[in-house]
Design brief:
The complex is a heterodimer of chains A (430) and B (331). Helix content of chain A is 21%, strand content 25%. With 430 residues, chain A is α+β, with helices and mostly antiparallel strands. Chain A has 3 domains: 135 residues, OB fold (Dihydrolipoamide Acetyltransferase, E2P); 32 residues, Irregular (Dihydrolipoamide Transferase), CATH 4.10.320.10; 225 residues, Chloramphenicol acetyltransferase-like domain (Chloramphenicol Acetyltransferase, 2-Layer Sandwich), CATH 3.30.559. Chain B contains 12 helices and 14 strands. In chain B, the strands form 3 sheets. Chain B has a 7-stranded mixed sheet, sandwiched between helices. A 5-stranded mixed sheet of chain B has the order 9-11-10-13-14, with helices on both faces. Chain B has a two-stranded antiparallel sheet with strand order 1-8. In chain B, strand 10, helix 8 and strand 11 form a beta-alpha-beta unit.
Chain lengths: 430, 331
Amino acid sequence: MATKIVMEALSPTMEEGRLVEWKKREGDPVAVGDVLAEVETDKAVMELVARAAGTLLKQLVAAGATVPVSSPVGWIGSAGESVATDGRPDGPSVSRAGGQEEPAKPAPAAVEPAPSEAAATKSDEPAPPPPPATDRPAAPTGRVRASPLARKIAAEQGVDLSGVSGSGPEGRVIKRDLEGGQTVTRTGGQVVSGPTVRPSGGPAFDDVPLTQIRKTIAKRLVQSIGPIPTFYLTSEVDMERVAEAREALNAAAGDQGKTSFNDIVLKAVATALHQHPACNAWWQDDHVRVWHEVHLGVAVAVEDGLITPVIRNAETKTLREIAAETRDLAKRARERKLKPEEYTGSTFSVSNLGMFDIEHFTAIINPPEAGILAIGSIAAVPAAVGGQLQVRRRMRMTMSCDHRVIDGATGAQFLKTLKLLLENPLALVW
Amino acid sequence: MAVLTYRDALNQALREEMQRDDRVFLMGEEVAEYDGAYKVSRGLLKEFGPKRVVDTPIAELGFTGIGVGAAMVGLRPVIEMMTWNFALLAIDEIVNGAAKIRYMSGGQLGCPIVFRGPGGSALQLGAQHSQAFESWYAHIPGLKVVTPGTPADAKGLLKSAIRDDDPVVFIEGEMLYNNKGEVPEGEYLTPIGVAEVKRPGKDVTLVCHGKTVAIALKAAEQLAAEQIAAEVVDLRSIRPLDSATILQSVAKTNRCVVVEEGWPFAGVGAQVVDVIQRDGFDALDAPVLRVTNADVPMPYNKHLEKAAKVDAAKVVAAAKRVLYLLDPRTD
């Protein structure tokens, strides 16, 4: 009984592999563990090893061909044993509906299509042997794989299962795919119990089930760019009015309680986030937690790294409160005197390198948060104001967005609000 | 409630039933003078005398046949098998005798008899003395099969078995005799054919019986540490099987793992899976998995024996598979 060699998932994200080179020729003896071929995955060139011993009877794909994971690439069996050349089981051991036996095809030169079971769904054909334990997309059978329970739920809800992407093995649709939440909920990253009493009333957050499009976006983008599919939005802000307001405030405040540009930015960020909760959210693997409270993480450089103390409920705090609290948190952060609850549970973060004359940079998202804002320096630059060239103090800010949570337009709307607030600081108290 | 060992719970049940009904007698190897190979019959000879607590030669077929005959003519024998491995020698009397008398006599004769003793493996007893035979007896129409996993059920089920008018195969566990548990005070019966939810949960059902009850409960404890709430359903009786309780649980959890001692082929779990796939089909979100002993004669080697036996880690892994937290196809 010959054993089929399939393209194995040699990396967790691999969906197809390019067979770079066969290391065994047809007719070569093969032991379990022998390297049969080199396969280029989405990440690296890996070895495809034999799972059975015998003779390499057939190479079903030529070197250079790219085939989907789980597709057959060859056969191992006893010398002289006959095998199909199309990846199907061979011989009389498999009963077929009469007249549907396909003639053996010559070994294809290039890409072997996935097993053509879709074209020939024979109800009396024994189920194919279970594939190797790899995640792979639904087999193209036309029949939707779904658990009995999922079928029942879909029928009750009037959902067409063919439009649901299944998270079970071989794309099996299971209960959680229809309910948007697993029975067993796992939270990724840090978890904090939010304040039970919210100053502004109402729940601290809403857990929003993932829609199919959200799930697909999450799945595809993670495949593209890594565990947190990040994109960046940059906006330049005219800081003249902020600068004027700050000078006035600090002149009035005298020696105590100076307000920094960063404090004003934080206040504006908190206000803007409150208006755009979609950017004030956590990715939770099977749902998105949209926060109504703004717990603002403020990146602070410390001696051998950085720490992000949190201004709780920043959306409810005045500029003066934010300034005082930031000063206190930053000081204690440098002294390593923060308590854990003072640097966990943030819903969005701000990192500012403006004081180092960095014009513009990108910050790395602190999961499970969906966004972080990188603040550059405020520099006097030439700018067109009302058609006239003027020297203006301007600042560039770049938001890193987790695309699973935040779409381009969503992030852009938030930045637009933020820019508006900073260019018209009176709006902060409006 | 009093805390008793499984052994003492059985002893209480025997004593109470022998006090209650003088047709009840105990017979088997070493049950009288030696107080039982596992001391289940401790003190009974002294209390009830040699006519009701009868030592036999090492002759299972013979004394089992005597018991079946005695039951046919109105006594209520309790036949102790030193272990169920030895009962293989007596299986003709159990299967062809006891199980068929009522049917073949057209209801003129009954056979109110209990066959009891430890089944399954203990520690390094070797291939011939480590076998779980409940599925064999459960296969036979005319027999009832019960497998208590706790002291309370041991007492309640043995009293029910002795009062039952049909033959009952009563399978204990050598490794259970020293287990302690709360046993209700006074007279009580555990009904035959009624399963019990030993621990409620919502995420996955663990069906177990006999010795695997403790294993399933341990697995449920470990799963709870990972926020997985397992419901433990103790079958207690293999035949008649309490399908309703199993189905009720699976309707709630949508996922099931059946845990049993013994070999996989045509085991008790196969019957449970049959019930679920037929009458609980629409409740299933994943295939039902079974955790059994390995499909080999029990190895004598300590490490191989451990590897061959059901344990909590295997149950936890199976539960995660049906929850799609691990690949459900791998074994």
